[in-house]
Amino acid sequence: MSRQIQGATAVVTGGQKGLGKAIVDELLARGAAKVYATSRRPEPSTDPRVVAVEAEVTDDDSVAQLAALAGDATIVVNNAGVTGGKSLLHSDFDEIRSVFETNLFGPLHVTRAFAPQLAGGTFVNVASVLSWLPGFGAYGSSKAALWSATNSLRAELSAQGTNVIGVYLGYTDTSMVADLDVPKNDPADVARQIVDGIETGAAEVLADELTRQARTTVFA
């Protein structure tokens, strides 16, 4: 089922930099009326359509306050994420747990808080091609778990007409991978594909050729 962007209100976690900011910009370019852009340390926006919100996706009270503030939202993008825990065997266990708290339980906190008011709307979970490629420690494992959770949430929320989109992508040109000398996606291009997916009611967005190949290989 297609979703209307024109005049819509959206929430984008981690929406003040990197891919999150690109998603905010693309939503506004397509006619969104308002976007709540969250950050742990938000900066005011010069665009009156952008509401900068301090939020911590791992904290129940913070997420509940966000859901109460953004009660008019029909689109919620779970974009906030962290890296870390390179080795499941040797990295500090608290670091591994922290990655899962943000990358898996963060989106789940947000989804549980917004689900009652998002009937007929859209959730977007930004995962990774590493959902399907082994060997990337806590980050890859947390994104694999998010892929599975996204599929389960899609089934649970279908009865109320809420679409749940999983977004999968390789290296993208943001501060998270700034030190890596590898080919990278343009965040604006990824954001365009994500908003296309919202409009068309897609189940998945595979943002680049690496991701499309990985998806095909794993599920051949």
Topology:
Blueprint: E1 9-12, H1 18-29, E2 34-39, E3 50-54, H2 60-69, E4 75-78, H3 93-114, E5 122-126, H4 137-157, E6 163-168, H5 187-200, E7 204-206, H6 209-218
Parallel strand pairs: 1-2, 1-4, 2-3, 4-5, 5-6, 6-7
Helix pairs in contact: 1-5, 2-3, 3-4
How would you characterize this protein structure?
This protein has a single domain, classed as NAD(P)-binding Rossmann-like Domain (Rossmann fold, 3-Layer(aba) Sandwich). Helices cover 40% and strands 15% of the residues. It has six helices and seven strands, in the order E-H-E-E-H-E-H-E-H-E-H-E-H. The chain has helices at residues 18-29, 60-69, 93-114, 137-157, 187-200, 209-218; strands spanning 9-12, 34-39, 50-54, 75-78, 122-126, 163-168, 204-206. The mean pLDDT is 93.
Named at the architecture level, the CATH assignment is 3-Layer(aba) Sandwich
Residue-averaged pLDDT: 93
The level of helicity is 40-55%
CATH superfamily membership: NAD(P)-binding Rossmann-like Domain
Structural class: alpha/beta
What is the number of E strands?
7
Q: Cα-atom Rg, whole angstroms?
A: 16 Å
Q: Strand sequence of the main sheet, in spatial order?
A: 3-2-1-4-5-6-7
Characterize the main sheet. Answer: 7 strands, parallel
The CATH class name reads Alpha Beta
What ranges have pLDDT less than 50 throughout 5 or more consecutive residues?
none
Q: What letter string, H or E per element, gives the SSE order?
A: EHEEHEHEHEHEH
Query: How many H/I helical runs?
Result: 6
Shape assignment:
globular
Query: Could you tell me how far the N terminus lies from the C terminus, measured between alpha carbons in angstroms?
Result: 27 Å
Quickly count the domains: 1
